[in-house]
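lol so apparently i was supposed to do this last week
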Amino acid sequence: MTNTVAIGIQWGDEGKGKIVDLMAPKMDVVARFQGGPNAGHTLVLGDKKTVLNHIPSGILHDDTLCLIGNGTVVDPFRLVEEMDMLLDAGIPVAERLKISDRCQLILPYHRTLDAAREAAKGEGKIGTTGKGIGPCYEDKTARRGIRLVDLTSPDLGARIDANLEYVNFMLTQYLNAAPVNRADVDEALELARARLLPLAADVPLILQKRIKAGDQILYEGAQGSMLDVDHGTYPFVTSSNTVAGAALAGLGVGPGQVDAVLGICKAYTTRVGAGPFPTELYNAEGMCDAKNAGKHMAEKGHEFGATTGRPRRTGWFDGPVVQHAVRINGVTGLAITKLDVLDGLDEVKLCTGYELDGEVLESIPACCSQLDAVTPIYETLPGWSENTFGATAMDQLPANAVALLRRIEAVCDCPVTMLSTGPDRNHIIHL
Ligand code: GDP
Ligand code: IMO
Ligand code: MG
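anyway here it is w/ 6-O-phosphoryl inosine monophosphate bound
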C-alpha cells in the first residue's frame, strides 16, 4: 500500500496537476489539503487542456473519488465556475467530489481586502494572486471565518454583520478603499448553499473508511514548499502550510497513514510574485542573463501563471532550495518535470550551495535579506541539442540529460522516481 503525498517543492507551478492526473488511475481517492483558487493545476491529454483551481487533479478519472479537505479555502463563485466548466466537458463532477464541511469560505470581502492591502503596500507588495487567500486564512485563525457547515447555523447572519462591520471599517478608514455590499456576500452564501452544501461531507470519516478498506490515497498539495508560511521565504509566501505535514491536519489523517512523499520540481526554477530567488536569470522587469538561458526557459516552458497569466521569473535549478524541501517534507522520491525545456541549451547550470560573506552555508537562510544576498555556487554541465520532448524511456534521453539527473539526485540526496518530458499525461518516464 502506498498512500502518497504529492507536493511542489519549489515556488509552485512545478507540474503537480500533470503528475497527480497521471497517478490518479492507480488511486482510489485524490484529496487536496490546503490552498484554494490561488492554485492553478494544468492537466493535458492530447489537445485538451484543463486548469483546476480547487478541484483535485484526479477528477478526470471515472473511478477516483476527489476530496477537498478542511485545510483548504473555497471561493463559492470560483468553485462553482470550475464545476460547471467540468460539467460542460462531460465530467459528472458532483458524483466524484466531496467537500469538507469544515473548509473555510472565501467571501467577497476577502478578495477586496487582498487587493486593497496589496495596493497599500505599493512597491513592497507580495504579488498575491488576488484571490482573497491571505484574508480568508487570517479570519480562520482569528476564529471569525465562515465554514461550509456554518451555512446551516442560525447565527450566520449576525456573524456576517459583525465581519462586515470590521472589514468595512478597515477598508474605508484605513485602506482608502470602497466598502463591500452585504448583497454581494449574500449572493456568495446563496450559491454555496445551493451548489456546495449538497457536496459537504465528513472527510476524515470517508478517508478512514477508505484507508481501512485498503484503498490507495493520493494527497495533493498546492503551491510549493518555498511558499509555505513557516518554511518558505517569509513574508513572500502564501498563507497556509504547503509542506507534506499539512496533509495530515488539512484532511484529518494520522502520520502513520502516509507511506511516501513525492517532491515535484522542475529541472530549473520559476517563481511568480515578489521575493528572493537566488538563481534567477530572467524576469519581466528586464533582467536577462548573457546567454539568454532564462529567456529560453520562459519561452520554451511557456512560463505564464495558470491562474493569473502573469509571466513567471525563471532561473537555474537551485540545489539548496530542493535540499531544504527534501528535509522539511521527508521527500522519498523526486518527480523532475520540464526536462524537455532545457533541450537546445549549450550548457546547463546547477546551484549546489550558497556563499554568504565568504562562507559556504549549510542550509538556506531563514531571513529574506540574507537569502537576497547569497551568491549561488554553480556547477556547469554540458547541455544537449537532442529532443527529449515526449520521451517515455531513459534510453531515449541523451547522455548529458541523464548526467544532469544523476547530479540532481546526488546534490539533493534523493532518488528521482519520475521524469516528465512534456505537458501531456503520457509524457512520462518511471524510474
Ligand atoms: P502546478 O501548479 O504545479 O500544477 O503547475 P502549472 O500547471 O501551474 O504549471 C506547469 C505547466 O507546465 C503547465 O502548463 C503544464 O502543462 C506544463 N508541464 C508540466 N510538465 C511538463 C513537462 O514535463 N514539460 C513541459 N514542456 N511542460 C510541462
Ligand atoms: P500552484 O498550486 C505559484 C504565490 C503568489 C504570491 C504568493 C502569495 O499553481 O503551484 P496568495 O495569493 O497565495 O496570497 O499569494 O504565493 N502563489 C503561487 N505561485 N503557484 C501557485 O499555486 C501559487 N499560489 C500562490 O504568486 O507570490
Ligand atoms: Mg500552478
